[in-house]
Description:
- The structure holds 3 protein chains of 3 kinds.
- Chain A is mainly alpha-helical.
- Chain A has 8 helices and 5 strands.
- Chain A has a domain at 38-74 and 118-162 and 192-250: Cytochrome Bc1 Complex, Chain D, domain 2.
- Chain A has helices at residues 2-26, 51-63, 86-94, 126-132, 144-147, 151-160, 208-223, 227-256; strands at residues 97-99, 110-112, 162-163, 177-179, 186-187.
- The radius of gyration of chain A is 24 Å and the shape is globular.
- Chain B has a 3-stranded antiparallel beta sheet, with no helix packed on it. In chain B, strands 2-3-4 form a 3-stranded antiparallel beta sheet, with no helix packed on it.
- Chains in contact: A-B, A-C, B-C.
- Chains A and C meet through helix 1 and helix 8 of A and helix 4, helix 5, helix 10 and helix 15 of C.
Amino acid sequence: MTRTFKRIALATALLAAFSVSDVSTSRAASKATPPPPQDWSFSGVFGTFDRAQLQRGYLVYREVCAACHSMKQVYFRHLVDIGLSENAIKAIAAEFEVAGEPDEDGEPTERPAQLFDRLPSPYANDNEARSANNGALPPDLSLIAKSRVGGSDYIHALLTGYLEKAPAGVTMGEGMNYNTYFAANQIAMAPPLAEDGVEYEDGTKASVDQQARDVAAFMTWAAEPEMEERKRMGIKVLLFLIILTAMLYAVKRRVWSDLH
Amino acid sequence: MADTSTTTAEGHEHEEDRRDFLLTSTIVVGAAGVALTAWPFIDFMNPSADVLALASLEFDISTMEPGQAITVTWRNKPIFIRRRTAAEIDEAKKVPLSDLKDPQADADRVKEGKDEWLVMIGICTHLGCIPAGQKVTDSKGEFGGWFCPCHGSHYDTSGRIRKGPAPRNLEIPPYAFTNDTTVRIG
Amino acid sequence: MSAAPEWKNPVVRWIDHRLPVFTFTHHSLIDYPTPRNLNYWWNFGSLAGVVLVILIATGLFLAMHYNPNVDYAFDSVERIMRDVNYGWLMRYMHANGASMFFLVVYIHMFRALYYGSYRAPREVLWFIGLFIFLAMMATAFVGYTLPWGQMSFWGATVITNLFSVVPFFGDAIVQWLLGGFAVDNPTLNRFFAFHFLLPFVIFGLVFLHLWALHVHKSNNPLGVDIKTDGDTIPFHPYYTAKDAFGLGVFLIFYFAFAFFAPNYLGHPDNYIPANPLVTPPEIVPEWYFLPFYAILRAVPDNFIDIWGILPILVTAKTAGVILMFASIIVLFFLPWLDRSPVRSARFRPIYKQLYWLFLADCIVLGWVGANPPEGTMLVIGRIATLYYFVHLLVFMPLLSRYEKTRPLPDSISAAVTPQGSSQSAQAQGA
């Protein structure tokens, strides 16, 4: 019996060591403050997205972030998933002009965006994006929640972490803004959110914190649109495996009972 | 090992039954698991969401004049959309069904109340060429519709086969008018 | 040990007479004599086989939607994740499966180290295992390039540049590997081709591994040879049942990662498309390469000053690369470095302690590899690297000569069956 315990302890230690070694990998070498963890409807094994929040978040993205940031991996048709009706999305899409087929004379044409189009990018290419932004490239936001340590917590923290004046002793670069949570604390993006900067249809008060929270949720959805299906399926699969494994254990015990 | 199993069999008949039941049910549950696992693999090969998103397309037809035809692409096939003139409609309507190789009334080839609009898959039913007749300058064949240059099939103003080797009328894709100026194909 | 069974089904009998696949399967999976005392650490071999099959299956399907072109690779992976039916499942199973494969194989290798499974007459079995490990490393490395994220690109850049240390031909070799002057489309294309091929090479090596295994049969926790029929039990149903249960436990662990923490083992930077003009703040390999990465970076920059003598050919970078490759090559010599009369650490009191130290050392190396090579981390890395080689090259030979081993049981059955347990009680005491 003790031997079994020793084995279990050993296996646990191995796993622990293995996971700890990984945690340290994902810590980027930066002096930024780690983002404070927030409550999200989608955290945990049973967590799901709050559709109303995603729609508010999309509004913030559309009216604020989209001025500089693309979201190339997201298509208009994907937005059905955040609870918008197909007609509502069509109406939104039609506000954007995208490149159409060349006309009969080979001249480029434009047509209103449709469901099968990507969310349009604000700039034609990276160089245009840089030149419009003082040399800084606004990153694509489709996967930002997965490509930054801290995910949604980080996005929320970053958007609310601006200080109007850098603390004494910090020399700021030209056109840079002080942000508590950004690597090295200097970020080219000016504080993007303002109190009541957008008007929510559902009457939610659009405080900076609320907008940051909503847009962070939206970006988490954009990065992991499969999350709900994945968790739902995961629970079923694991329950099934636990039952099957229990049965296999019973079979193993029965088979080996001849020997012991 | 032979001796051990015989002792078990003689001594514990009930346990033996239980073991069989346990073993059978475990195998059944395990096999069910393996079978269910196959589904994600099979479904993975089905058309993906981006492909399906192009499976039905909407086209704006508000700018088309009577007598004008456009060709659009749907599921990699040419779709002929023609806004027919009153004369063309009349001509299509008055053909007796008995004159047709593939008898079909004109009314069955258009949407009710939308006689003007003919929407067809522009592929000759003979060997898959694209019939001419869309452009003003094209030969429209002996019946004022379409003419397939490959083997000389003539289609009338309703896209029905009238002369030549093609066995069937030009096919009508599934479509609907979402409003007066938009047609959704697929 | 038993004669070919009489096949009752006439079709089976007809085929078996011409191509004895049924007899072969019977002998290698059904009545295959297996030591009766194998513990759960012996499950990991079959687990590795199952993970390999899962990886090949998911990989084959992923290849149906993946596009190995620098302009489309990243987007095609995202398309798999978002638009392809169950694409996310396929990709997360594959990515986490790679981690699981290494985890399982590492445990399998450390089991062999503890119980002396590499010792005569199983040296070739051990070699084939090491070749499988090398092939796995190559497969994982080229595979990690395919999503064409920042870590993919820079990992490929850094590792291919290791070959620039080859004297005289270094740069030419690197260009040949890359098919250009930097990691680019030709590199991605060939890496995809290799990533598709190598798993089947591994599959073939696994067959050789099993063949070699079945010649001298499994080692066992006691490390003593099989002597009589009483020492073994047929593989089926005993070990099929045990392996099936172990597989269930393992799948729960694996799927918990794949469904609930699919990106935990990956690096966030790989969700940023590859950018040849921007290097990430630090380039970190996947966890399973971290110990080797630590060894690679362990050599001090002032190495030349210390050694003084061979400064031209052997720079710090070269030495690091040599050490890293040596850390695997040295494992090939293990059967001769360890000449102890006893295989299993159960009867080797000192080796047993050192074994745990060695395992801890490897974990420390992994931890060092995950951190920037600065300050204390660098010192710890060097000590750990030193110990890695001292353990294998110095302690193993010394121990085999001077260690006083405990008495071995007469046979497996004497040690583990009730009849024999009284006499082996003292040997089991550990």
